[in-house]
Amino acid sequence: MSQQQPQTIYLKDYQVPSHLIAKTELRFELAEEETLVRATLHVRRNPEGAQARPALVLNGHPSLELCRLSIDGQVLSERDFQRTDETLTITQVPEEFTLECLTRIHPETNTALEGLYKSDGMFCTQCEAEGFRRITFYPDRPDVMSVFSTTVVADKTRYPILLSNGNPVETGEEDDGRHFVTWDDPFPKPAYLFALVAGDLAVLEDSYTTSSGRKVSLKIYAERKDLDKLDHAMASLKKAMHWDEQVYGREYDLDIYMIVAVDFFNMGAMENKGLNIFNTSCVLASPKTTTDAAFQRVESVVAHEYFHNWSGNRVTCRDWFQLSLKEGFTVFRDAEFSADVNSRTVKRVEDVTLLRTAQFAEDGGPMAHPVRPDSYMEISNFYTLTVYEKGAEVVRMIHSLLGPEQFRAGADLYFQRHDGQAVTTDDFVKAMEDASGRDLTQFRRWYSQAGTPNVEASGSWDAEQGRYRLTLRQSTPATPGQDEKLPLHMPIAYGLLDQQGRELSAGVLELTESEQTFVFDNLPGHPVPSLLRGFSAPVKLSFDYSDEELMLLLKSDTDGFNRWDAGQRMAVRLMLGMIDDYRAGRSIQVPSLLVESWASVLRDRSLDPAMVAHLLRLPGEAYLAEQCQTVDVEAIHEVRQALREQLANALKDDWLQAYKRSCQDGAYTPDAESIARRSLKNLCLGYLLATGEDAWLALAEEQFSRADNMTDQHAALSLVVHSSFREAGERMLDAFHNQWQHEALVMNQWFAVQASDPWPGALERVQRLAEHPLFDERNPNKLRALIAAFCAQNPVRFHAEDGSGYRFLADWIIKLNTSNPQVASRLLTPLTRWKRYPDAAQAKMKSELERILAVDKLSPDVYEVVSKSLA
Ligand code: TRP
Ligand code: ZN
What we know:
By secondary structure, the protein is α+β, with helices and mostly antiparallel strands. Among the domains are: 200 residues, tricorn interacting facor f3 domain (Immunoglobulin-like, Sandwich), CATH 2.60.40; 90 residues, Zincin-like (2-Layer Sandwich); 134 residues, Neutral Protease, domain 2; 85 residues, Sandwich (Immunoglobulin-like). Helix content is 41%, strand content 21%. It is built from 27 helices and 31 strands. The protein has an eight-stranded mixed beta sheet, with no helix packed on it. A five-stranded mixed beta sheet has the order 17-18-19-21-20, covered by helices on one side. Strand 2 and strand 3 form a beta hairpin.
């Protein structure tokens, strides 16, 4: 190995900070060739620290140029401190002192997009998790909370807008056409919540009056050309502020709340106190340029970042192992918000689909870790589906076990007890226990035990006694570093239906043992169990349903989620049989059962229209792959295509009628009902195109050119491009390019549609597109639209037999390892799953991982993922 191995950090080694920083004063002089940062820290020894005369150890990135360091006005010489790659240590310090530190940094060449950097000519920051140490030397850990005062100085013409956290308290002019603004944030916060923005920005302004009557000024900043795309984010913000007051009794606490949209951003958005910074993809929205899915994403991300003001900022994390304390809880909060303002069942179906495909795969892969990890090399690698989505499921289970009232009492106690503190997931659970009187000792294992539990359910019916016995057995497979697994405490929501589909009883079972039997008496007949309603626990539940029983659940379950799930179970089971046939070289037959049940859903006018599109969607290729021992990507793809085609032909009239019924004139609105209607309409269009008949191509082309909204236009584009109508697809791509070449986010869709095209030639096309003038390898959104879309959304082409897809990805990882390690490491995911594929593919994937590992100066981000994948 050519590089020094990064250190592993362990939760068990946690120690309280040796010093506290009561106040942090920052002055930034922003310029084109360098930025000067003067930090004045009011430091005192932590009375709770382990040592009586501790050295002061500050974090500092190797890129920091130290200009001057002084204590209480006395300039330190080189002999007074030691600098390593990552730290600066001053051995002799007083009990209490003022440290002044002048550093020079280079945001203009910062391509990692961590710390202070430039995005399209504007300055912005990303400090979570450990970006602040790229700005100045500092105890960059979340349990050091400080009151910040920030002065930003910059050229007035280029950077008329200067922002930081809190309230503006002073503005003025400096020499050389520069101006300054000073911002004070009265709430103590860790450095990861610090933010700064400087640029020539337009703003949408509004206000919100809190339930106690305080008026808060709301400002959303963006480039001038995007000013007309901010209304949806503003409306979403106000909805979220109101919801948090209604549901959690939480009000906003500053006089001003700002959001800034930036084009270069590693993730979705960031909850910096009073100054959220958003990826443009999570804030801009307009009917003509934005799909329904993106409208909903904007709404939920705006809400998510807003909710962090309490779950994350007022109460923050003690250390990064506790990340799910804020992320799991906040994802749960934003999911409930979306469920309340849109369709609850649809939201649940979408979230569970993500969890069962991507999070379950993570739990079964080489990077599997508990919701509260116990070690890491690079914390950026742990902003995962496990910490976010499974973490939210864990909070949801507490909600199910306690019920809404006691959960709310627990949340109140948590916020009241820990306001202004940096705490642990255990503190969260303790507040829930104390408020409810329930014992969650065993439940805590959800935080420390990795892997997805299997729950096997079986029933036995005693006709004479009218008694049904339901047995549940749980087990969790071993994960890296955790061989032994203990039984978990899980809520299993259930209902029992009679053979006519009427509900006999319903409730929540609490499974705590490895095996447990629940007895139901006085039943009129052999019941059909509806299990894990609403997906009440993040587990793989199996039950040996007959086809008729699944049909019954699909038709009559009172739980909307389980109706959908019954259809999915039926489809998965039949498709796995077809995949076996395909692999054995047998002809594949479409089971009539599936056609019948799809027909019954299509024709049933009593169904919730919001659910119909979901009920009629075949399980995705990634979800099917999850159900296979060894993944045969080609078989999965071919079977799914064949099934689509046959469903298309068998139900052609129904698809057309449903399509027509779902077309509706009138102005576009992104409400749940209209979204459901468009989603059904475009699902029907997809099935019609799958027949390969010219008439439906004409229909799609008409929809494409006449659409007044991006949802319909994009659906027509991607359906035709991915269909057998190859020439028509090319024509549409050209038309789309010509129409939208000046809209960056729309062009990301143009890249992604081509990258995810399953037809041969996709790799060559992606390679060509990487040279397109609108592609920019420094922009993470572009990398996601082209490189990630190909590697993660186009399994048949990524897994091409000659290994070309793997080589392509490895080349990109090696290139991005230097410029943007966070994004490089995230792109790696598809290669890390090599164990799931046939031997020949495994060998090729592994050799690419080995090639990456041999690279000189591998970032800790990439090193951790690659080395753990090969272990
Ligand atoms: N705290 C952010 C959120 O979930 C996540 C985030 C934004 C982030 N940008 C990041 C995490 C950069 C790591 C690196 O809302
Ligand atoms: Zn978050």
